[in-house]
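Our collaborator T.R. sent over the components below with a one-line note: 'Predict the complex.' Nothing else. No constraints on interfaces, no templates requested, no preferences about which chain binds where. So this is a plain run: every listed entity goes in together, and whatever single assembly comes back becomes the starting point for the next discussion.
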Amino acid sequence: MKKKLLATLLTCALAVTTLAGCGEKPAASASNATPKAETKTSTEKKEEAPKEELTGIDLIISQAEAMTMEELAKKAIEESNGKTFYGVGNSSRGKSALPKFIDYLKTIDANYNMEFEWQQPKNNKIFEQLTSDSLKSTGTFAMTLIQDGNQIQSKMVDTGILKTFVPKEWAEANGTTADAYEGFLPLQTLNKVFMFNCTGSAKFTNCWDFIYEGSHPLFMGVDSEIVGKNFLMMLTEDKYAGWLKDAYDKLDATKKAYFEPTIQAMQSDAKDLGLGANGAYALAWIKLWVNSYNEQTDDGPICNTLVDASATDQSGLLVYSKLRSVEESASVSVNNIKVAAYEDGYTGIGGYGYCHYLFLTKNSPLPWTACAFIAYMTCTEDGFEAWGKDMGGYSSNPNVAKEIEAKFQHSQGGGDQFPAKNDRGYDWWTGEGKGELVLEDPKYCSEVSFTVGSWIDVLDHYKPE
Amino acid sequence: MQAMNKPDKSAIFKNKVKTWFSQPQNIILLLFGIVLTFSTVAPIVAIVKDTFQIHPGTIDQHLTKRTSGYTIVNYTDLFTSRLAKTNLWTPLVNTLFLSVFTCIISILFGGLFAFLVTRTDMKFKKYLSSIFIFPYIMPQWTLAVVWQHMFYSNKITGTSDGLLASLFGIRMPYWWCQGLFPSAMVLGLHYAPFAYILIGGIFKNMDANLEEAATILDTPKAKIMFKVTLPMIKPAILSTILLVFGSAMGSYPVPHYLNFTTLSTKYISMNSKYTGEASILAIIMMIFGVVILGMNQLSLKSRKNYTTVTGKSGQLTKLRIGKIGKYLVGIIFILVTFFTSIWPILLFALETFLPNPGDYSFLYTGNFAHLTTKWWVTNENITENGMYGQSGILYNNTIWHAFFGTLFLAVLCALIAGTIGTLIGYAVSKKRRNKWANYVNNVAFLPYLMPSIAVGAAFFILFSNEKINLFNTYTLLIIAGVVKYIPFASRSSLNSMLQISGELEEAAIIQNTSWIKRMTKIIIPIQKSSIISGYLLPFMTCLRELSLFLLLCTQGFILSTTLDYFDEMGLYAFSSAINLILIITILVFNTLVNKLTGASLDDGIGGK
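Returned assembly:
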C-alpha cells in the first residue's frame, strides 16, 4: 500500500510538472529559432547591439574597445574598488594573473583593493555554470577564460551568454581594429603534439604511422575532452584533409596498401557528409585513430607513461607543456621521448592547437574591470606571465609573445641536454611543412558537430586485448 | 437534556487535533513528510523536465531545429538511434553486472569476515575488525588508482609498467587490469565493511539455539548453514544489497579510472552534446533505486520488524576452528587486509616522496637519493621545478581551503542529517503501523537508493534557474548531502528505537516529563551508540563523497573534487597526500567519538 502511495505520488508529480511545463512555455517556432541558432555568429554581435543595450554590456564593450589599457584601468578602479571579482575558467592560472592585475591597478591608485575568486569547474561544467549564471539579472561571474570553440559558438555565443571584447592594444598589435576583427578573442593557443617513446626501435616519421597496424597512441579521448573531438572534426576541413592526403602520398607502398581499403571505404561517407575532395583521407585517419587510441584520463598520466623507460615504442598525443615538469630519475627522462614533428624527415600534422578564449558575461557585475583584466592579460607581458612562463602556450598578441620569449627563452628551454623541450614557437608549429598544427575553428566545428561529430560518435573505440 | 447530550463535533475535532499535535512524533512525521516529499520529488521532477527540454548546442536542438521549448526527441533518439547500443544498452547492462558483482563480492567477503569474527574463535579479531573498515574510509577510486599502479603493464594496458611488472615481470591479463572485474573488486572491497557491519550485527546477536538444535539432530553442517544460518541473516544480506546495489550503480570514479563504461560514466561523457539524453540515463538509474526499495518492501512484508532477529541470546557458542586454524585464518586475514587496507596507505605515503608520479624506479635501482620532499615543502609555484605549477602540499592553499570546506560540509551534513534521521527513526518507531509513518520512512530512504550521480544531477538542475542559483555553494552541497544521508541516521535510529520498550517513555510521561527531557535523558542515552553511528556515517561518507558532489561544485571547493582533479591530472603525490589527510581525519574523529561516547563504526561486532 505504501509502495503504491509513493509510486502514485511520484507519478502524479512528474506528470503534472511535465505537462505544466509544456503548457507554460510554448516551444519557439522553427522559423524564429532556427535561423538565429544556425546562422548567428560572433561576427554579428554588432548587428545585435540595439537589443543588447538593455544590459549595457554591449555599450560598455564598444566604449572599452576604444580605450587604452590605462584608461580601462582607471574605469576598473572606479568600478571595483573594495568589491569582489568572480572569474571562471578552464585554466587555473587566472587565479595567478588576478593578483598581478590588482598590483597593476595599485600602481595607478595605491588605495585600490579588490577581493577575487577564481573558479575552475570540472569536465564540461563550465558551460552549465555560465548558462545557469546567465539566467540572473546580474550575474556572479564578471568574465571567463574558456576553451572548446565548438561549444562556445553553439552554447555561449549563439545564445548571447558571452560577449567578445577586443582590447585596443591587442587589435593594434595584430594589425586590425576591434570593429574589423572577426571571431573570439584568444588569450593563447595551446598545442597538443605527437610524441613517442624512443627507448625501442619504433619509428614515427609520418602522421599516418600513429594509426598504422599495432599502434595504440595514448590520448585523452574524444568524450573526456571535447577539444580532442574538435581536432578530429577539423581534420575534415579542406586545408587539413589536404595535409593528410599529402602525408599519405609520401608513405611507402606497404603502408599505402594497408590504409588504402579504409580510404576507399570512406569515400561514400565523405560524400554523404558533404566533405571536400580529400575528405575520405580525413575520415580514414579519424576512423583508424578512434579505433586504435588508448584512452587515458588526462595528459598528465600520458606524459608520466611516455617518459618512462618501460613504455617502449608507445606514442601519444598530449599537451606539449607537460614535458616541463618531468624530473629525471633512473627510469624517467625527457630524453626517453621524442617530439615527432621535431624529427628530421617527419611528414604530416604534428598535433593540434586550440585556444583559451576570453569573454565577458552578458550580465557581468563588473564589466569595466573585466575589460581591463582581459586587456591586461592579452596586452602586457606581466598579465600573460602566468601562462607564458611555461613552454607550449603562445600569446595571441605578437608583442607579448616576443617579450615572453625574450624573458623565458622557451626556444632554448631544454638546451642540448633535452632537445625535446626546445619550443620552436607558434609560427613554426602552425607553418605548413613545419609543425603543421591543426588549428581549431569554432565556426567550422560548430557546423559539422552533428554531421562529422555524430559520425565520429558511432566509431568503435579501442580496448586492449 | 437532549441538547446537552449532543456531542459538540467541532469541540471533538479541536480536541482530536490538539491531542494529535500533543504527540511530538506526529509533528515530526507531518513536518518531515512534507519536507522530504519536496526534497525527494522536486529534484526528480526537475530532471524529468530536463529530459523534455531543448538545450541549445545539443542533439535536441539539432534534431528539432529549435533552440527552446519541449520535445520527446531525447527519448526517441536515445532508445532508437544507431547510438542506442553505445549510449544506453551497453552501459545499462554493464551497470547491472557491476552492481550485482559488487553486491556478491561485498557480501561474500564482508559476510565471511563477519562470520569469522563473531562466530568462531579466530585470533586477532580486534585488530582485524578495525582494519577491515579502512577501504570504506578511503575514497573508493583511490583503490582503483592503487590497482592501476599495481597491475598495469606496458605489454597489456599500453601504459608504463606498474609495480608487479617492473619489479617481478608479472603481467596480469587485460580483464584483470581494466573493465568489469577490477571495478567490481574495488567496489566490492569498498562496500564489504557494510556487509561486515550489517551481517556481523546479526551474527553477533542471533540465537544459537536453532543451530545447536540442528546439530543435536545430527544435521550436516552444510545443511545447517543453508537451512538455518543463512535464512537468519537474510535480512542483513538484503539490507547489504539494498545499500550496495544503488551505491555501485551510481559510482562514477571507479569505472571511470578502470575503463568500464557504465550509466554513470556515460552520463558524464554525454552531458555536453546529449544533455537531455544524459538526464534520461539519470532517471533510469533512479528507477532502479525505486525498484530496489519496492523489492525490499516485498521481501520484508511478512516480517513486521526484522530487527527481532537481533534480540540478544545468552547462548551464543563459537565455532572452534582448531588450535592452528584460529591463528592461520587470522594470519590469512591479516595478510588480506594488509593489501586492502594498509598497502594502499603505504603507497599513498610513498607516492608523496617519488620524483615523478608513479616513478618507483628507486625500488629496483636502490637509489634512494631520487626520493624527494618537494611535493610537501615547496612553498611557491612560480619556479618550474617539476611541480606542474602547484605549491607543495603544506603550502597549497587549494588543498587546505578544500580541506576546511569539506570539514565544514561534513560536520553540518552529519549534524543535520543525523538529527533529522534520528527524529524520523524515533517517530516511525512510535507509529510503525501507521501508513503515513511508513511513507515518511520510505521517502526518507529513497534518496539513498538512488545513484549519487543521478541525485547530484537532479539537484544541479533543480537549483540552477533564474530564481535560485546555488551551484558551487555550500548550501547546495549541504542540502544534497543531508537528503542523501538521512537514511544512514533514520535506519540506524529506527532499528535501535524499535528495541526500546514503550513502557520506559510511558513511565516518564506519567511523571509529566517533557518530550525534550525524555529524549535527552532516556531515549538517546539508551541507544547512543546507534544514534552516534547515525551521525558518524554521514560525516565519514561526506568527507570522501565524489559522485554526489561532482556536478554541484568546482574542483578545489571540497577535498574529494580536488583529489579527483589531481588523480585525473596524474599528480598522484597530491592526491595521495589528500588521501592521507582524509584517512587521518576520519580516524581522529572516529577515535575521538569512540573515546567520548564509546561508539564506533564497528561497534559491538569487532571482537568486543
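Summary for T.R.: Chain A has two domains: 48-187+355-402, 190-352+421-457.
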